[in-house]
Design brief:
This protein is α/β, with parallel strands linked by helices and about 750 residues long. It is built from 24 helices and 28 strands.
């Protein structure tokens, strides 16, 4: 009966494909009729190019796999010359099925934009889509068809290194970014040679790994999944994402890569996903140490039956599927279903018409790192920066100010483009030292410290120290004393965040903290410029340093963008999308938490709080200052009660009461006061990014509909329940005006 049900599902799926595009369906089914079992299995095998100083290269045995039709896709293959050479091999095979070339085009291809967490702080969906569009144009010209992006994992633990690759802690905002990124990469027609096939990852729940430790386990309720973690993946599917990547973690006790409920029942049957599913790197093999299977034979069967179509680098499908078929552990229909999906993606990309689609040296030379693209990178970097503190308007810097630039990241070219910058050439990146020299001429500069004095850490990061910290600190102090203002460039190296870069202590490394304290003790005003891939714990810094600018890893044009903001050419408007904890003991910390039966009461010992630190983060979600001052007044709701078919109009007056023109992100949150299951204290439901000239005042309006009030109730139905609601509008999730309304039956 189970086999019959599977066959029926495959038949219905193929019928649907045939109805959507009969010509495509005929082409693929005719091709599949000519394919041997070996050729079919080959389409499900994704192999990886190696890298050396000259660029990507292919192992000899992998070349033979291509010539034998035993490989359907290549990871880490780019440049027109290299991909054409590999595609030439595929064109020598019996059926001439083209290869699919994929790569980690995460925040730009050659023109590198800020890391995704930084880019998210722009709160500008058009810019987020634009950077993905530029990345697609550059990467496709460089021979690529496919990017392993966007990562939409909701994350509430900044110890996890891969928060750098996501957009933070909020589900609603994650949904908007997921849709924007898919549109940017894929455009409206994948056959257009300047598009990329997008891959949403990591499906699913990877951002909730325990202890913030990469590759660790995840355990949560279905309600938590559906309410907070699954919506961004679903949004990417609804936006038409072409591929999905499995996550390394388990979901409800079963690794995602072998999870039939996740990959078939939820993704395909409930959400209607039509593309193909690829594993993360060797994820099928890794189900063995998970303890869910004994060997690769069992792992291959579990993954294919779950609905996983392509095996990344593990070669489990390549070595096990034929034997599994012979042993009747899987069916030909199981294989055919996966093969069909892979071939369909290649067809949609236009690879059967032109296997060399888009790979053009002349086009690459014209498009890659063009003046227009570099200007976009500079603009997006400016908008990603978050002003965390600015006492007595120390920033922007005044003309004629004598500046000293100090810090191990002041001239760190490699770190400017950050982690997951794959094809990016860090030698093309501008540093802060370079940018300040181009603006001011000569400038007093001292490194001041090693990134860390922990030699074990430096060895892991492949970094050599540059001298004795005590000597470097002494030089930095002498340099600082000669200046009017000191700019200190501190934070993380690019290798201290990203994949396999979790940290249990997310403060500044001790060597840098000692430098900061020494310079602070000179009495000179200090501007702390942070470069990092995650929220840091900055309680001492916030208490002592007058100005703090968060710049993340800002990309190819990062140095110039930082200088633009420091000198006021651009007024910073970024807002953080992940809370900054006071210390690691508060983690996980996020704004949309739920209340307890004993919510915080400072006057009552027996309520939910710490003895040694506030419950509140240092900087809350949505926080970010400006060189000007915005005031909020006159929150108005056009009615006190609404029915399900009605909308509620919310308005607020925002005034630029400062001395500079500036942008503000006006944020709207709601709270369901009483519901059948407990609800968060507030949830983001909309925002407006506006530009106000100094002295200008504007009424900003939002419409709230019943869809903004829905959640998964006690029966796991997605509904809006009648009752009381609060609405909050403000400059961040903490500093808000408040109103009330009711939803009537």
């Amino acid at each position: 009966m189970k086999l019959l049900a599977q066959c029926a599902l495959l038949f219905l799926s193929l019928q649907l494909h045939a109805q959507q595009d009969p010509q495509r369906h005929r082409f693929i089914t005719t091709l599949m009729q000519r394919m041997t079992i070996g050729e079919k299995i080959g389409q499900l095998n994704l192999l990886t190019s190696d890298m050396d100083v000259t660029g990507p290269f292919m192992k000899e045995n992998y070349k033979q796999d291509i010539l034998n039709g035993a490989c359907g896709a290549i990871f880490n293959a780019y440049t027109p010359q290299y991909t054409r050479k590999l595609q030439d091999m595929a064109m020598q095979t019996r059926l001439k099925i083209p290869l699919l070339f994929g790569y980690d085009v995460i925040h730009g291809h050659k023109t590198i934009f800020p890391i995704p967490l930084g880019e998210a702080c722009t709160w500008d969906l058009a810019l987020l889509e634009k950077s993905a569009r530029i990345a697609a144009e550059e990467a496709s010209a460089d021979g690529l068809h496919w990017t392993f992006s966007p990562m939409v994992d909701i994350a509430r633990d900044p110890r996890w290194g891969r928060v750098a690759e996501g957009v933070g802690e909020d589900t609603w905002y994650g949904v908007q970014v997921a849709k924007a990124k898919v549109r940017g990469y894929q455009g409206t027609d994948l056959s257009t040679p300047n598009t990329l096939l997008a891959c949403v990852k990591h499906f699913a729940l990877y951002g909730a790994i325990e202890a913030g430790r990469d590759y660790n386990t995840v355990d949560m309720s279905r309600r938590q999944m559906y309410q907070f973690y699954l919506p961004p993946y679903k949004a990417a599917v609804e936006a038409g994402v072409g591929t999905v990547m499995t996550s390394f973690n388990e979901v409800d006790g079963i690794p995602a890569t072998g999870n039939h409920w996740l990959m078939t029942e939820l993704l395909r049957e409930e959400w209607g996903f039509k593309g193909f599913v690829v594993t993360d790197y060797t994820a099928i093999n890794e189900m063995i140490p998970h303890g869910i299977v004994k060997n690769e034979y069992e792992a291959g069967a579990l993954a294919l039956k779950a609905g996983v179509d392509m095996d990344m680098q593990g070669s489990v499908y390549a070595t096990q599927l034929k034997k599994l078929l012979d042993d009747k552990k899987i069916t030909l229909q199981d294989i055919d279903q996966a093969v069909y999906r892979v071939l369909e993606a290649k067809y949609k990309l236009g690879l059967f018409k032109d296997p060399y689609r888009g790979a053009d040296s002349a086009r690459a030379k014209k498009v890659i790192m063009s003046t227009t693209n570099l200007q976009a990178a500079r603009e997006i970097a400016q908008r990603s920066f978050v002003l965390l503190k600015n006492e007595q308007q120390l920033l922007p810097l005044r003309k004629g100010t004598k500046i000293a630039l100090i810090g191990p990241l002041a001239n760190a070219q490699r770190d400017m483009i950050g982690n997951w910058s794959a094809a990016g050439d860090y030698k093309q990146a501008s540093t802060l030292l370079e940018a300040l020299k181009s603006r001011l001429g000569d400038i007093d500069y001292a490194p001041g410290a090693n990134l860390s004095d922990d030699r074990g850490l430096l060895k892991k990061l492949n970094i050599t120290d540059t001298g004795r910290s005590e000597d470097m600190r002494k030089e930095a102090v002498e340099t600082a004393r000669k200046a009017d203002v000191v700019i200190l460039a501190l934070g993380e190296s690019q290798g201290m965040s990203g994949e396999a870069a979790s940290r249990s202590d997310i403060g500044l490394p001790a060597s840098q903290r000692a430098l900061l304290e020494a310079v602070y003790n000179t009495g000179k005003p200090v501007v702390l410029v942070l470069m990092n891939g995650r929220p840091l714990t900055l309680e001492w810094e916030d208490a002592h340093i007058p100005a703090i600018l968060e710049t993340w890893f800002p990309g190819t044009q990062g140095g110039y963008a930082i200088a633009d903001v420091l000198f006021g050419d651009y007024n910073p408007a970024g807002k953080i999308t992940m809370s900054f904890p006071r210390n690691t003991g508060q983690i996980p910390i996020y704004y949309n938490h739920k209340n307890t039966g004993r919510p915080l009461d400072p006057n009552n010992k027996y309520t939910s709080k710490y003895l040694d630190v506030s419950n509140e983060p240092l900087y809350p979600f949505g926080y970010g200052l400006s060189y000007t001052k915005f005031t909020y007044n006159n929150l108005q709701l056009d009615k006190k009660n609404i029915r399900p078919q009605e909308k509620l109009r919310v308005s607020v007056t925002v005034e630029n009461a400062g001395d500079y023109d500036g942008e503000e992100v006006v944020q709207l949150y709601i709270q369901d006061v009483t519901a059948s299951v407990n609800r968060p204290v507030k949830e983001l439901r909309n925002f407006r990014k506006i530009m106000l000239k100094k002295g200008e005042r504007r009424e900003v309006t939002f419409d709230i509909s019943v869809n903004d009030l829905k959640f998964y109730d006690k029966n796991m139905k997605y509904v809006a329940e009648p009752g009381a609601f609060k609405v909050f509008v403000g400059t961040n999730s903490r500093d808000v005006l408040e109103g009330e309304f009711s939803l009537l039956p």
